[in-house]
């Protein structure tokens, strides 16, 4: 179950995120929530979240919740979570939540450490390609204080949200292949190295070539552990790579992509070539 819901307040619409308040009941609520005595800090989340075409991706987060003495974080109708958004906080272009609220452990009478996950379902349309890149982190908490979640008196419900808690990248998962031929090859002869850089398309759930990107051709001599860059090659209009080089030693050839804000770095598995 998603924990985001929309609750209509008498004075206007207010977006709330609570496990037990379905949007279908928004019209039955009344009153305006009061500002919950709570704040959020010390958020930790992965620097980048790599999302493919179909598999669910869950990313852990944690934060410190500081609250007033009248806030009972152990109450069954108290909920809190962190979430991601793009655009303006008051009117975001898109949001990403977890399937469940965070779990909080008290560290003092007025502080707690809360942990949870952002759960992304690309196969269900959670993302569009335009959403790749930087997302902002926010957090929120709601206390129903014994109100019926289906039709609460919102004036008796406390709510607090807070933005500006950090950022993370949500990226289109990337793949990179390589093939060096002929194999084996005589020393001093020409090797042709081909490959393809592709990335997830969140709208048709397939992988397509990433065009016009610089990719390094690298070589690792047999018996060593370090790759050395030989040249930079650019992907063509379909994401394909093709270049030539001179065979000198036995070893491994690979392509390596440094990544962009929308697409993570990736290196192909080295292709071993025997030089005679």
Architecture overview:
The protein is mainly beta. Helix content is 0%, strand content 52%. It contains no helices and 22 strands. It is elongated and about 80 Å long. It has strands at residues 5-9, 12-16, 34-35, 38-45, 48-51, 57-67, 78-87, 92-96, 103-106, 111-120, 133-143, 158-162, 167-172, 174-181, 190-201, 206-209, 214-221, 228-234, 240-246, 251-257, 266-267, 271-273. Strand 7 (78-87) and strand 8 (92-96) form a beta hairpin. The strands form five sheets. Strands 3, 5, 7, 8, 11, 12 and 13 form a seven-stranded mixed sheet that branches. Strands 17, 18, 20, 21 and 22 form a five-stranded antiparallel sheet that branches. The N and C termini lie far apart (61 Å).
Describe the structure concisely.
The chain has strands at 5-9, 12-16, 34-35, 38-45, 48-51, 57-67, 78-87, 92-96, 103-106, 111-120, 133-143, 158-162, 167-172, 174-181, 190-201, 206-209, 214-221, 228-234, 240-246, 251-257, 266-267, 271-273. It has 276 residues and is mostly beta strands.
Provide the descriptors you would attach to this structure in a database record:
276 residues, mainly beta, five-stranded antiparallel beta sheet, 52% strand, disordered N terminus
The main pleated sheet reads as: 7 strands, mixed
Low-pLDDT runs of 5+ residues are: 1-29
Structural class designation: mainly beta
Total helical segments: 0
Radius of gyration: 25 Å
Overall mean confidence score, pLDDT: 90
The helical percent reads: under 10%
Shape: elongated
Q: What is the terminal separation in angstroms?
A: 61 Å
The count of β-strands is 22
SS strand fraction: over 45%
Topology as H/E string? EEEEEEEEEEEEEEEEEEEEEE
């Amino acid at each position: 179950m998603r924990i985001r819901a929309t609750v209509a307040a008498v004075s206007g619409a207010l977006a709330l995120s609570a496990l037990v308040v379905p949007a279908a009941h928004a019209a039955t609520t009344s009153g305006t929530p009061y500002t919950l005595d709570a704040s959020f800090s010390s958020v930790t989340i992965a620097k980048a979240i790599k999302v493919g075409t179909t598999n669910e991706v869950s990313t852990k987060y944690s934060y410190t919740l500081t609250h007033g003495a009248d806030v009972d974080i152990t109450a069954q109708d108290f909920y809190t979570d962190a979430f991601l958004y793009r655009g303006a906080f008051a009117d975001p272009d898109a949001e990403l939540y977890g399937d469940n609220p965070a779990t909080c452990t008290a560290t003092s009478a007025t502080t707690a450490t809360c942990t949870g996950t952002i759960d992304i379902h690309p196969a269900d349309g959670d993302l569009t390609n335009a959403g790749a890149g930087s997302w902002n982190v926010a957090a929120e908490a709601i206390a129903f204080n014994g109100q019926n979640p289906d039709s609460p008196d919102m004036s008796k419900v406390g709510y607090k949200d807070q933005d500006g808690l950090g950022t993370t990248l949500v990226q289109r998962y990337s793949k990179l292949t390589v093939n060096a031929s002929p194999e084996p090859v005589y020393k001093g002869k020409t090797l042709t190295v081909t490959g393809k850089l592709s990335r997830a398309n969140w709208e048709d759930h397939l992988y397509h070539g990433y065009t016009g990107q610089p990719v390094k051709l690298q070589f690792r001599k047999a018996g060593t552990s370090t790759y050395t860059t030989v040249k930079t090659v650019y992907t063509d209009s379909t994401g394909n790579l093709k270049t030539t080089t001179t065979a000198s030693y036995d070893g491994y050839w690979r392509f390596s992509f440094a990544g962009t804000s929308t697409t993570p770095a990736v290196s192909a598995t080295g292709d071993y070539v025997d030089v005679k």
